Amino acid sequence: MPFFTHDNRRLHYITSGEGKPVLLVHGFTNAGLSWMHQIAALTFAGYQVIVPDLAGHGLSDRVDSVTTVPNLTRDAIALLDHLKLDTVTLCGLSLGGMIAQQAALDYPDRIERIVVANSRATFATPESAAAVESWVGLFSQAQGPLKRFQATWPMMLNETFRQSGTGVATFESWCRLAARADGASMINVARGMCGFDVRARLSQIHQPTLVIAGEQDKLFAPDVAREVTDGIRGARMEIIPGASHISSLDSADAFNRLLVEFLGS
């Protein structure tokens, strides 16, 4: 399994395919394999796909202190250095979408274009802080990450997907992933997210930008995602009908069409 080391942490990633590189960054509490449908689609479309597990997630090392979006962004850039890649397209979902915006701002010469999916321009709101504290309560319990995952699953994916055979199998496999997750790491990443706010800097993003929202997203509704679109000159927004928060999974075909079209434009 491929790993690299940054800031004294061993971080896991996978790669697939050859061609122009695309970095896929997952959301909070998930892992790189949540991009399984995109890995296949982009590989067969002729791209090199790079998929990390964020610090504290998946097979990457735990985090022992509050870990911010800029911290996670530096990890992503360190992965590009490790792979000797000058530039990439960065596609991120939820927390990954925050990292995409941060990378475009802080490392403009390394990021060719960005896709911000089911995300927003700030997590520094009273509502977000209250949500994080409720998550902290769950993560602090025995099997806390599993309990939170099971509680939030209905909000993450639309009912059609959840009731499908693929949805049932995904739920079971993600339960196993959540069961091995480290609650303290989740707390450190969640609290770090609370400082994220790039609203005043969005106009500085010059890279071509695609914003994807899910029509049924109850966490980051289309109106919240639109703030990203409105702040970045020339950004294009697409709302996937019927999609929920993890639109790359419950509406994979529509998501992949938008992604591949954008990459080829």
> Can you identify the CATH class?
Alpha Beta
**What is the number of domains?**
1
Major sheet attributes: 8 strands, mixed
Overall shape = globular
**Strand-residue proportion:** 15-25%
Would you identify the CATH H-level superfamily?
Answer: Alpha/Beta hydrolase fold, catalytic domain
CATH topology: Rossmann fold
Q: What is the helical fraction, as a range of percent?
A: 40-55%
Q: Provide the residue-averaged pLDDT.
A: 97
Low-confidence stretches: none
User: Termini, distance in Å?
Assistant: 33 Å
In which order are the strands of the major sheet placed? 1-2-4-3-5-6-7-8
Describe the structure.
With 265 residues, this protein is α/β, with parallel strands linked by helices. It has helices at 36-44, 69-82, 95-106, 126-139, 144-156, 159-163, 165-179, 183-193, 222-231, 247-250, 252-264; strands at residues 3-6, 9-16, 20-25, 47-52, 88-93, 111-117, 209-214, 236-240. The protein has one domain: Alpha/Beta hydrolase fold, catalytic domain (Rossmann fold), CATH 3.40.50.1820. It contains 11 helices and 8 strands. It has an 8-stranded mixed beta sheet with strand order 1-2-4-3-5-6-7-8, sandwiched between helices. The longest helix is centred in the middle third of the chain and has 15 residues, at 165-179. The radius of gyration is 17 Å and the shape is globular.
